[in-house]
Structure to design on (1382 residues):
């Protein structure tokens, strides 16, 4: 996850592909080495390797597409990252409270554990979601129902309830059938599959009439606003079929979960100080976990064509995430699935000792490289589903919210466990894990592959130093390879092994790149990256989607679906992004076709030669070093856990709420049910002064001021002597802080009123209008303030500055009776009648009598009124009108009737004279007497001069000099 | 609710389903129309609703019927659900179901080549609006955001799209347009009318006169109201007059609605109604306005405006009536002029400002000399009075020929 996040935050779109390539190569090379090792120790060990390679081959053709696609997608996503990234994360995060409830209700420890885990990490949020969905999907109806209840308790419950438990159950209950049908059709294009499954899906959410297949999709959305959610759903059936049995029998899910939590939780929960460390952590956790999961997927692929298809989906999923989240989610799923499916484990258990540490190490390296390939191959398939899933998302999302659980306690326990384990060469938990793995093997081929994979895992763990710290009980079992396919794969592998690198590397790019980057960048990455991670991840997913589109044959299905999806109305932009990511899932389904794999293998063999070059080796080494570093960091992070928890929980809460919001958005309903409280930040900043900066990510509590400080800040602004620009800036930052903390009370009103008045004073109408519209809402909520004053301003604005009769009517209509008694409102209404009848005398009388703020509001209309009046006067008066009278009537002199006498009057007279001259009036002075306007002559010469401060863009307010002059 | 046996319920439901598919099979628009009229409270639908509440598994019957005939389940299931919800007063649910059904129906309708079902579409358009209004009422009573009418508006736009092209269905476009107007006026989003109007008025393929006359009258009424908002009185007069002339005289309520706007429009172009008209259509709120215009009684006008302010603001004619003030001033000066003429014909064309101020004071309108002077200047400026104002002597000098020109159907120049 972290890696993704880091990348997302980094500006470069192009960089990703490159780095990814490197990564992949490294991976490949590493993978290669371990393979050799495997050969030495066990002849049979080749099998797993083969599997992974096959995958790589398959995905090979896709490489180019992926890269390009990812690049394309990047830019748009980036832009959105700032604002939306946060949201995405938030979505993924489950609500802690809800999750705890769920866990309790479910009663299955495994489930609870996962939930906790997920809650701790942001990334995990996704995982959880997936997990939950999958979990519920499983036959255990009881658990499912409980889940629903939890959902209901939450605000958003209503929206997701619709996807009924039946659907999920049906799909999951018959996982085999599902996979069978799906995969049975070699090509995705098969009519039967697409029509029933995909189309139904769309309807499904609305009607609740989904077939088994559609149900899976439904699950997706729930798991994931996050893209991650998608992949897992698809995979479920497969896993359960193959690997599921083992898990069920041997693994107690709960312990495993805890271990995960430990790793993940640490990374996710950074305290402000620890952030850097945490960031670095993230990738690590992700790596370890990934390796495992990836292998699982590989295995799955081997067994049968069907499985492959499913695997590909899964791997895709992983790739995109490149983050721990996915893996986590998977693990739980697999274990859960095992329970549900209840498959019999045939394999004998093999002791742990067989695996030598050395071998293990190499193996572990291998694993890493393989992962990327797999992932890349997986990416191919998915495009179709996405949109559908997105639709589903809205309803489904609530699901994960409910799931989320508090993590801290579990994490701590896990670390404790790890310490305890350290006694023996191999911790008993590891042994148990191995036993579990072997217990599910049905024949020798499986066993050998199993062995190989296990050795890799353990070696890797040792390598990483996680052998003792990892909670093996929680470790997910990797999927078992099918004996038949594995044999075939092995052959391929052997032939291909030497040349492997190229293709695999390409594929892996999408997935691995981010990870590598993370490592490097982690130290510097700010906490904020968390939010961005998700986004980048989504981007990647989108990229994979592009790939999918490129494969015409496979994707023929997808087009109809997409068009369908595109039709769905009212989806905001953000959602469309999601839908893109979701598409990947679809592709994954389609990509599994056997034809393609063959093609890929061809490609692959040609590319293999590159693999053993010295460069490659170097890269591999470099890479392995990086891993070590990452691990150290992880260790550091653990210490910071507790502090981070608070922050994390805030994010979680917010994420949840956002997710909810999004869900409800999607559905265009229940918007009012969003649990906004969860989004609220509680500020801790004590600075009275703060510059306004537009938020581009979720607000950081450390930079948000709490209410008391804001009050002082407001006072400071009110009393300070600085210019409007400064005050405006300060007020905007106060408003921002109020908004993110959702403070809506007298203080808020006061701030907006203050700002509104200042804006009026400075003639800053746009800013004033903002304040005005906020105030309207606040007043409507019953918060006290100077409502009359501002409704007068509002009236004046409508009267003087917008020529919209309907607006005027409605704002006049909305005046209450007591408002009409208010002096300011009365004044405004009088201004209205003066303007509408053209009564300039009345207008300027009102102008003089007005308070200074209203004067400044009316100022903007004075010129127009004067000119209109002069036209009137010059037409209706004969023969002359004294200038003094005009000056008096048109408001040039400050004091009403006696203006001519005092100094002000004299000034006004001069000013009036100037004005008249400027507007083309003809002035005459008879016999040394008063200056007069010759009305008849003037009536044809009056004109409206170009305003001196006119600017090309029409808004004099934007002229810098003028603005500075006014505001300073 | 009267007791209905299971069998009876079953019979009613199947009967309804049979009628529905028959009406489509025989392309009987009128029959179909009556089956869609959810809010009409027709006895058929009421009894059906009771039956639906008794026979909970009616969806199965629909499915069965569906198997035998055309694929009408998409329409019928939500439609029946709507009837059921409507009966028990759950209008939000009824609306949601109806919208679903209407969408499916519209889908079918698009495939029908001829316009036989246009009447049914009318009913759908009408029902969805009525149901949306009811649903919004329910929503706002629950403190939720009433948004269904907006949804109905966008659905109606879809219907409009399916009708507005070439071909025989175009005849129905105006009806839907009128429903859209109703929605938009209610929502206060009249600016959305513009696009619909444009497509009605610019389409050359179809002569406006060929639309049904009731639709034409309704259309003219709404477009006339729009012109009132824009203070485009000549056009408003023309459209509202058209609506009045084409409105069926039996529908007094409709005539009254038209007159509510037409009278202020006519007033502002100088045409006063007879008092009998106001009485006949119960438009007494205008009586004092008209009286004030006739007598030049400014106080009366202001009082009348104040008295009915809420109503005038709601209907949107307040601003129009407000502008009548100048005409009242004109009348007042004219009266003074006439009296002066009787007294001393030679000096009749010179009216001292003091006199006017005194007259206004007598009307309890407190205005000082400057202000009255300004009013006189405006009267001259706006061509309500011919002459000039002599500032030095504070006298209005009137033209000897036609000093108070009549508006004669033209608005006051601005």
């Amino acid at each position: 996850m972290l890696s993704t996040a880091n990348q997302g935050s980094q500006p470069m779109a192009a960089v990703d592909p490159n780095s990814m390539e490197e990564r992949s190569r490294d991976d490949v090379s590493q993978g290669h080495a371990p393979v050799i090792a495997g050969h030495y120790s066990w002849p049979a060990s080749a099998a797993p390797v083969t599997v992974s390679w096959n995958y790589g081959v398959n995905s090979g053709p896709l490489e180019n597409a992926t890269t390009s696609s990812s690049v394309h997608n990047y830019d748009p996503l980036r832009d959105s990252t700032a604002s939306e990234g946060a949201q995405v994360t938030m979505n993924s995060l489950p609500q802690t409270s809800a999750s705890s409830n769920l866990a309790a209700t479910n009663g299955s420890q495994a489930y609870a554990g996962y939930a906790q885990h997920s809650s701790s990490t942001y990334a995990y949020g996704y995982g959880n979601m997936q997990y939950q969905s999958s979990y519920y999907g499983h036959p255990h109806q009881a658990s499912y129902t409980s889940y629903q209840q939890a959902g209901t308790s939450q605000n958003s419950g209503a929206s997701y309830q619709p996807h009924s438990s039946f659907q999920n159950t049906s799909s999951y209950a018959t996982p085999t059938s599902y996979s069978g049908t799906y995969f049975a059709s070699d090509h995705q294009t098969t009519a039967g599959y697409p029509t029933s499954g995909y189309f139904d899906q769309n309807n499904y959410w609305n009607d609740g009439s989904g077939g088994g297949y559609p149900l899976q999709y439904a699950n997706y959305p729930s798991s994931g606003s996050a893209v991650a959610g998608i992949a897992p759903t698809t995979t479920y059936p497969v896993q359960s079929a193959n690997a599921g049995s083992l898990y069920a029998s041997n693994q107690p899910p709960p312990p495993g979960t805890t271990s995960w939590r430990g790793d993940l939780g640490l990374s996710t929960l950074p305290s402000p100080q620890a952030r850097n460390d945490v960031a670095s952590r993230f990738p690590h956790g992700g790596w370890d976990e990934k390796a495992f999961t990836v292998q699982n997927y590989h295995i799955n692929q081997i067994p049968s064509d069907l499985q492959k298809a499913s695997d590909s989906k899964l791997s895709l999923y992983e790739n995109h995430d490149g983050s721990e989240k996915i893996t986590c989610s998977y693990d739980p799923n697999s274990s859960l699935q095992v329970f549900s499916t209840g498959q019999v484990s045939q394999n004998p258990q093999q002791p742990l000792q067989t695996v030598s540490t050395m071998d293990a190490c190499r193996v572990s390296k291998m694993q890493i490289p393989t992962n990327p390939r797999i992932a890349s191959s997986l990416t191919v398939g998915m495009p179709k589903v996405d949109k559908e899933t997105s639709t589903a998302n809205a309803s489904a999302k609530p699901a994960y919210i409910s799931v989320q659980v508090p993590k801290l306690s579990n994490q701590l326990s896990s670390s404790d466990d790890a310490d305890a384990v350290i006694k023996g060469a191999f911790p008993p938990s590891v042994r148990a894990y191995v036993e579990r793995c072997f217990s599910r093997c049905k024949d020798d081929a499986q066993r050998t592959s199993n062995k190989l994979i296990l050795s890799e895992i353990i070696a890797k763990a040792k390598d990483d130093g996680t052998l003792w710290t990892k909670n093996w009980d929680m470790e997910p079992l990797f999927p078992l390879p099918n004996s038949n396919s594995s044999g075939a794969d092995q052959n391929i592998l052997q032939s291909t092994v030497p040349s492997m690198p190229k293709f695999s590397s390409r594929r892996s790019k999408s997935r691995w790149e981010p990870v590598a980057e993370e490592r490097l960048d982690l130290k510097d990455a700010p906490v904020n990256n968390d939010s961005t991670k998700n986004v980048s991840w989504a981007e990647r997913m989108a990229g994979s989607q592009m790939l999918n589109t490129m494969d015409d044959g496979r994707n023929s299905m997808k087009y109809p679906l997409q068009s369908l999806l595109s039709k769905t109305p009212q989806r905001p932009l953000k959602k469309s992004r999601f839908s893109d990511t979701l598409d990947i899932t679809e592709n994954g389904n389609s990509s599994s076709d056997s034809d393609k794999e063959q093609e890929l293998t061809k490609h692959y063999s040609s590319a293999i030669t590159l693999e053993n070059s010295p460069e490659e080796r170097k890269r591999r080494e470099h890479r392995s070093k990086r891993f070590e570093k990452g691990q150290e960091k992880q260790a550091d992070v653990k210490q910071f856990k507790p502090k981070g928890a608070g922050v994390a929980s805030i994010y979680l809460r917010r994420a949840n709420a956002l997710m909810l919001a999004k869900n409800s958005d999607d559905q265009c309903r229940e918007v009012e049910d969003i649990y906004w409280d969860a989004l609220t930040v509680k500020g801790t900043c004590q600075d009275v002064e703060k510059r306004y900066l537009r938020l581009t990510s979720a607000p950081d509590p450390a930079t948000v001021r709490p209410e008391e400080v804001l009050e002082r800040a407001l006072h400071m602004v009110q009393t300070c002597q600085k210019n409007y620009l400064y005050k405006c800036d300060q007020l905007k930052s106060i408003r921002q802080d109020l908004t993110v903390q959702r403070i809506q009370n007298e203080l808020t009103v006061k701030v907006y009123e203050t700002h509104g008045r200042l804006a009026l004073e400075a003639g800053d109408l746009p800013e004033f209008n903002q304040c005005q519209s906020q105030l309207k809402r606040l007043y409507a909520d019953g918060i006290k303030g100077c409502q009359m004053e501002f409704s007068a301003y509002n009236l004046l604005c409508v009267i003087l500055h917008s020529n919209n009769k309907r607006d005027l009517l409605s704002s006049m209509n909305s005046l209450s009776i007591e408002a009409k008694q208010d002096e300011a409102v009365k004044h405004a209404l009088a201004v209205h009648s003066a303007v509408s009848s053209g009564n300039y005398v009345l207008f300027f009388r009102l102008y003089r009598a007005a308070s200074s703020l209203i004067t400044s509001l009316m100022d903007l209309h004075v010129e127009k009124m004067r000119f209109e009046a002069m036209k009137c006067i010059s037409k209706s008066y004969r023969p002359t009108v004294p200038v003094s009278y005009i000056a008096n009537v048109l408001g040039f002199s400050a004091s009403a009737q006696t203006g001519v006498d005092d100094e002000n009057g004299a000034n006004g007279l001069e000013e009036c004279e100037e004005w008249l001259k400027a507007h083309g009036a003809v002035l005459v002075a008879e016999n040394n007497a008063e200056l007069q306007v010759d009305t008849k002559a003037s009536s044809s010469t009056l004109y409206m001069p170009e305003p001196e401060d006119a600017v090309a863009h029409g808004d004099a307010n934007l002229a810098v000099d003028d603005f500075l002059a006014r505001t300073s | 609710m009267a007791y209905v046996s299971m069998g009876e319920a079953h019979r009613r439901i199947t009967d309804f389903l049979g009628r529905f598919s028959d009406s489509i099979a025989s392309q009987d628009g009128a029959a179909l129309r009556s089956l869609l009229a959810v809010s009409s409270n027709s006895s058929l639908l009421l009894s059906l609703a009771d039956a639906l509440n008794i026979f909970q598994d009616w969806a199965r019957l629909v499915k069965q019927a569906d198997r035998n005939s055309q694929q009408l389940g998409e329409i019928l299931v939500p439609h029946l659900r709507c009837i059921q919800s409507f009966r028990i007063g759950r209008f939000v649910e009824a609306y949601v179901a109806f919208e679903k059904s209407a969408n499916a129906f519209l889908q079918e309708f698009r495939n029908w080549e001829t316009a036989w079902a246009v009447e049914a579409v009318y009913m759908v358009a009408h029902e969805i609006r009525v149901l949306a209004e009811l649903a919004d009422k329910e929503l706002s009573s629950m403190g939720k955001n009433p948004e269904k009418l907006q949804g109905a508006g966008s659905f109606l736009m879809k219907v409009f799209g399916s009708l507005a092209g070439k071909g025989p269905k175009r005849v129905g476009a105006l009806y839907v347009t009128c429903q859209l107007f109703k929605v938009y006026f209610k929502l206060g989003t009249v600016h959305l009318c513009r696009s619909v109007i444009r497509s009605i008025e610019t389409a050359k393929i179809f002569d406006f006169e060929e639309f049904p006359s009731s639709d034409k009258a309704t259309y003219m009424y709404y477009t006339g109201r729009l012109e009132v908002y824009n203070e485009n009185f000549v056009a408003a007069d023309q459209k509202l007059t058209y609506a009045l002339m084409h409105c069926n005289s039996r529908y007094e309520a409709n005539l009254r609605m038209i007159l509510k706007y037409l009278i202020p429009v006519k007033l502002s172009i100088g045409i006063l109604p007879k008092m009998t008209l106001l009485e006949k259509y119960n438009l007494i709120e205008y009586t004092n306005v008209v009286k004030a215009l006739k007598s030049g009684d400014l106080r009366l006008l202001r009082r009348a405006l104040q008295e009915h302010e809420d109503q005038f603001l709601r209907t949107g004619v307040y601003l129009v009536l407000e502008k009548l003030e100048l005409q009242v001033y004109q009348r007042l000066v004219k009266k003074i002029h006439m009296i002066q003429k009787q007294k001393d014909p030679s000096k009749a064309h010179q009216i001292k400002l003091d006199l006017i101020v005194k007259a206004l004071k007598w009307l309890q309108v407190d205005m000082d000399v400057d202000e009255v002077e300004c009013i006189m200047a405006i009267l001259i400026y706006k061509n309500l009075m011919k002459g000039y104002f002599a500032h030095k002597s504070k006298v209005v000098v009137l033209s000897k020929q036609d000093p108070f020109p009549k508006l004669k159907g033209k608005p006051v120049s601005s």
Observations:
- Residues 202 and 330 of chain A are 25 Å apart (CA to CA).
- The longest helix of chain A spans residues 614-667.
- Chain A has three domains: 2-484+503-601+614-642, 701-846, 847-968.
- The interface with chain B takes residues 671-672, 805-806, 808-810, 812-813, 833, 836-842, 871-873, 875-882, 885, 889 of chain A (CB under 8 Å).
